[in-house]
């Protein structure tokens, strides 16, 4: 993999502080939205808010949700390149993934088309779990949920034999090969205690509990035939006469018997009634630092869809306990003919919806969509001004940051004449496009808001106070096992292993000048 150097002009304006920084956002601006070329590459009224998010993540887990369309989830279903690469770009800042992304129930992915999600793989065998009893509107995009009974073959769920099988993949082995990182390193620390968090839904009349059967294998292919090591059962109050509630229970620590790939089989406990399991995630109990992103995207969506098709999903979003939400719409909105002002109004409503479900000062990061082909001139003109609309939202809301991905990608050549390089069909990202977008966005974000003290320049490998070719040559010699200058080591990322990640991190530092 070749690491590119991106030189960004980062404009961050400190506009408000203290209690005023948490004021409710204004709804409109009298000025027309700017063209994307006139919008800063990154903007926030209150950079301290986002700096605190990063600072906190160096000692404790921070969770983000992404609301977007199929490009943000992936062109081919769950997994894709873009979201895993976003998680990877974050991982390179913390060198730790504290937990997996939330995992879809009633699913089977990881064998390719669809590939797996970040750090997990699922399997579903028939007869197994079935569709959720919950209404579609109560579930966010990408979270189908499931209904399940016991796995003894004689039950109300069509004599279910198998539960939902979920495997933790410390090395992201089954993500899309286009990510260029699948199976290349340890992103999750398997030497720490391991837990499983499960979100379940209440039912007004009847519900079983949740059974968790723990197994482990040496293969990254989950297997129903792996022997059970331990079994847990939940004790949640899943019968509730009022509106649906979403409850979370933690199971563990999970016994992995020293094997590389722990897995759990989730099912109900009662053969006579169903249990509604919504989602789950693996959680490390020893190293909480870092940020994990979960995508809640779906194909064809625009900024209005979650407000209509998923209008009742707020309680579940709240149960997922996000510390911030990324909102990434635009390509489909332009197709559907929304003006910049209409787009702004729709995104503002999404922000209000999310905050009404969580908390009024929830940080929001707006990601602007890149260029897409096959738009009429007037609709391309709308798309060109969506970053300006996002900027207006951030100018009126101190808890919003806007990353002008359109400008960042345009400056790297993501334009009509090069659309084959960045897009497979003029719309959906190629792996190169997805990686480029993820790198640019996360570099802009961390360059703007990571306010930790500046350390001596790591790229000055020979410690002569200058960063030049001699540093590169000295690092390569050290990396290849020849001579290391002074007391330097090729373990550039200090993870006790000398591997490709050390080389990649050194090149990043070298190309950025430090």
Task: Note the topology.
Blueprint: E1 42-44, H1 47-57, E2 61-69, H2 70-73, H3 82-94, E3 103-104, E4 120-123, E5 146-148, E6 164-168, E7 194-201, E8 210-217, E9 230-233, E10 246-251, E11 261-268, E12 275-284, E13 290-298, H4 305-308, H5 314-319, E14 324-328, H6 331-335, H7 340-357, E15 364-367, H8 377-396, E16 400-403, H9 405-411, H10 419-422, H11 431-449, H12 469-479, H13 500-512
Parallel strand pairs: 2-13, 2-14, 14-15, 15-16
Antiparallel strand pairs: 1-16, 3-12, 4-6, 5-12, 6-11, 7-10, 7-12, 8-9, 8-11
Helix pairs in contact: 3-11, 7-8, 12-13
Please describe the structure with a list of short key phrases separated by commas or semicolons.
16 strands; single chain; 6-stranded mixed β-sheet; alpha+beta; 514 residues
Structure description:
There is one protein chain. The protein is an alpha+beta fold and 514 residues long. The protein is 26% helix and 18% strand. A six-stranded mixed β-sheet has the order 1-16-15-14-2-13, sandwiched between helices. Helix 8 links the parallel strand 15 and strand 16. The N terminus is likely disordered.
């Amino acid at each position: 993999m070749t690491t590119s150097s991106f030189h960004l002009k980062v404009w961050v304006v400190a506009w408000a502080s203290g209690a005023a920084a948490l004021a409710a956002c204004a709804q409109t601006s009298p000025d027309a939205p700017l063209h994307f070329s006139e919008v800063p590459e990154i903007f926030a009224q209150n950079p301290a808010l986002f700096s605190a998010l990063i600072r906190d993540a160096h000692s404790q887990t921070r969770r983000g949700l992404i609301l977007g369309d199929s490009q943000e989830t992936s062109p081919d279903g769950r997994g894709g390149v873009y979201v895993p690469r976003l998680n990877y770009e974050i991982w390179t800042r913390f060198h730790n993934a504290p937990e997996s992304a939330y995992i879809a129930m009633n699913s089977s992915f990881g064998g390719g088309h669809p590939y797996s999600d970040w750090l997990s793989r699922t399997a579903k065998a028939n007869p197994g779990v079935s569709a959720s009893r919950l209404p579609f509107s109560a579930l966010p995009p990408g979270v189908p949920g499931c209904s399940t009974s016991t796995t003894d073959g004689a039950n109300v769920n069509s004599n279910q034999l198998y539960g939902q099988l979920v495997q933790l993949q410390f090395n992201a082995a089954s993500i899309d090969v286009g990510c260029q990182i699948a199976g290349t390193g340890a992103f999750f620390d398997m030497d720490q205690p391991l837990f499983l968090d499960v979100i379940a839904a209440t039912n007004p009349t009847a519900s079983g509990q949740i059974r968790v059967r723990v197994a482990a294998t040496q293969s990254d292919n989950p297997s129903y035939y792996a022997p059970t090591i331990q079994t847990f059962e939940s004790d949640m109050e899943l019968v509730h006469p009022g509106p649906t509630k979403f409850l979370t229970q933690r199971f563990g620590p999970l016994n992995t018997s020293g094997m590389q790939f722990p897995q759990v089989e989730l099912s109900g406990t009662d053969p006579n009634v169903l249990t509604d399991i919504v989602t789950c995630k693996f959680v490390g109990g020893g190293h909480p630092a870092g940020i994990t992103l979960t995508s809640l995207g779906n194909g064809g969506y625009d900024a209005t869809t979650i407000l209509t098709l998923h209008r009742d999903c707020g309680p579940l979003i709240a149960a997922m306990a996000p510390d911030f939400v990324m909102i990434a719409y635009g390509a489909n909105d332009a197709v559907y003919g929304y003006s910049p002002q209409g787009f702004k109004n729709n995104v503002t409503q999404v922000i209000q919806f999310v905050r009404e479900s969580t908390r009024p000062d929830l940080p929001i990061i707006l990601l602007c969509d890149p260029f897409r082909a096959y738009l009429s001139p007037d609709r391309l003109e709308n798309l060109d001004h969506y970053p300006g609309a996002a900027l207006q939202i951030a100018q009126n809301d101190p808890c919003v940051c806007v990353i002008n991905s359109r400008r960042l990608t345009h400056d790297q050549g993501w334009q009509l004449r090069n659309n084959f390089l960045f897009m497979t069909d003029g719309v959906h990202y190629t792996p190169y496009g997805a990686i480029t977008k993820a790198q640019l966005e996360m570099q802009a974000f961390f360059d703007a808001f990571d306010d930790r003290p500046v350390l001596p320049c790591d790229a000055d490998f020979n410690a002569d106070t200058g960063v030049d070719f001699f540093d590169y040559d000295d690092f390569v010699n050290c990396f290849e096992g020849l001579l290391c200058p002074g007391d330097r080591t090729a373990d550039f990322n200090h993870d006790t292993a000398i591997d490709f990640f050390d080389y990649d991190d050194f090149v990043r530092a070298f190309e950025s000048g430090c």
